[in-house]
Amino acid sequence: MTALLDDELSSSEANSVKDHLHSCSTCQQEFQSLSFAYQLTGQLGELEVAPDLWDRITPRLPSRSFFGQFWSLFRRPWVQATVGALVLAAFLSVFLWVPGQDQAEKEFAEFIQQRERISAETQSLLFSNAGVEVNRARSNPFVKPVSFSTRNPFQE
Amino acid sequence: MIPRSLVPILMLTFSPILRAQGDWEETRSIAQSQHEIILLLIEKKEFDEVPPAAEEIFKLHFPPEHEDKLVEEIRILTDALLHHNQTSIAHQLLDKGLAKVTVNRSKAELHREKAYLFKREGKADEAMNAFKLAKEIEQRTDP
Predict the structure, then answer these.
(1) Is residue A11 part of a domain?
(2) Pick from B96, B115, B30, B79: nearest CA to A139
(3) Would A40 be classed as within a structural domain?
(4) A58-93 pLDDT, tens digit each
(5) Which of A112, A115, A141 shows the shortest C-beta gap to B76?
(6) What is the mean pLDDT of chain B?
(7) Which structural domain range is residue A1 located in?
(8) Which residues 62-121 of A have a C-beta within 8 angstroms of B?
(9) Under an 8 A CB cutoff, do B32 and A112 touch?
(10) Per the domain annotation, does A35 fall within a domain?
(11) Which residue has the higher pLDDT, B1 or A120?
(12) Segments making up each domain of chain B, as ranges
C-alpha cells in the first residue's frame, strides 16, 4: 500500500492492489488511514536545522571505550568474514603443517641432484664408446675402491 | 723369534681372523667376476638373465663391514639398468638387496636408491616416502 502511495508500482500491480482494496474492507480502512497520514505529512514544511546542532549534540554523547569501538567494528559483516577466514586458516594450518616437511623436501632435492650426477658418471663410464671393457673394469664395485663412484667394490 | 710354546696360542688367536679374511677374499673374488658377467648381460641386453646372475652375488655371505660393497654394486647395477629403462629389474635387485643386508646404514642407502628409482619413474610420492623411510632407518642404531 505504501508502494502504491509512493507511485512505485507498475500500472498492472497498482490495478491489482486497487481491485483488492475494492473487495476487502479491512485493507480499505488501512489504506484510508495510511492516505490520511500521507496527506498530513505532505502538509508539513521542511525544518531548518540550526548550524550548531551537531556541535551541541556531540559533547552529550557518551565517549566510546576501546572495547566499544572494537565491538562496533566487529559488527561489520566484512570484518566478521575476514576474522572468520583467518581463524579457519590458522586452525587448518595446525593440522596440515608437518614439522620438517620443507627440510625433507630440500634434502630430497639435494639427494636427487647428487644422485643424478653419480648416475651420469657411472653410465658414461659403463657405456661410453671408448674403451668399454676398461671402463667396465673400473666400475666394478668389488675391486678395491679408489673412489666411490667408479670402482668395482669387490675388486682388489 | 717367537718361542715355540707360544705358537699354538698365536694360532688359536689369529686363525679365526685369518679364516674370516680368507672367506671374504673368496666372496669378493666371486662377486668381482659376477659383476663383470652381469654388466656384460646388460650390455648385450639380455635383461632376463640379470636377476639370476645377480642372485649369485646375493647368495654370498657379506660380513657387515663389507655390506657397503654390495650396496655399491646394487647402485651401479641400478644405473646400468636405468640406462636401458629396465626399472622393474632394478626394483627387483633393490628388494633382494634389502632382504639381504643387515646394517641399518646399508638398508637406508638401498631405500634411498629406491627413492631415486621412483623419482626417475615419475612416481614422486613413492620417491618421497622411500626417502623418508631411509632417513628414519638411518637414525636407528644397529643392535
Answers:
(1) yes
(2) B79
(3) yes
(4) 888 777 677 777 787 888 888 889 999 999 998 888
(5) A141
(6) 88
(7) 1-46
(8) 104-105, 107-108, 111-112, 115, 118-119
(9) no
(10) yes
(11) A120
(12) 4-138
**Cell numbers describing residue B49:** 638373465
**Nearest chain A Cα to B74, which residue?**
A141
* B63-117 residue pLDDT tens: 999 999 999 999 999 999 999 999 999 999 999 999 999 999 999 999 999 999 9
What nine digits make up the cell of B82? 636405468
Dist. CA A104–CA B51, nearest whole Å: 33
Interface pTM, i.e. ipTM: 0.77
Our count of domains for chain A comes to 1
Cα separations in angstroms, A19 against A7, A16, A35, B17: 16, 5, 17, 118
Q: Do A142 and B132 touch (CB under 8 A)?
A: no
Task: Say if A32 falls within a structural domain.
Answer: yes
Q: Using the beta-carbon criterion (under 8 Å), do A142 and B79 form an inter-chain contact?
A: no
Q: Say if B62 is an interface residue toward chain A (CB within 8 Å).
A: no
Dist CA B69 CA A144 (whole Å): 10
Q: Report the topology of domain B4-138.
A: 1.25.40
Q: Which pLDDT belongs to residue A71?
A: 80
Rounded to the nearest angstrom, the minimum Cα separation between A83 and chain B is 35
Average pLDDT taken over every residue of chain A: 79
